[in-house]
Known about the structure:
CATH architecture: Alpha-Beta Complex
Radius of gyration: 12 Å
Strand content: 25-35%
Number of domains: 1
Helix content: 25-40%
Low-confidence stretches: none
Amino acid sequence: MATYEDLHDHVREVVLDVVPDAEEGTSYGMPAWRVKGKPLLGLNQAKAHVGVYPFSPEVVEAVRDRLTGFTLTKGGVQCTPDEPLPDDVLAEMVRLRLAEIG
């Protein structure tokens, strides 16, 4: 059974594959990666899920059709360590957010 730490480590790998110079820290009180001082992607552990936040409702909307079976909110996607977001969708979220940051 996967843990939050496993998911966090995997998300870190995907983020750094797309944006090698992303800085790890916090944003809005959650673990996050930042680029040019702006939040790129964050994770927030809740009791029953992990929220993945690209800090952009537009990014969530752009990948909505590829996330059947996941709960989507205005600014994030809920998953679990045992059922994480597909790597290609996660990487696309990072690329789209990076493009917004500029």
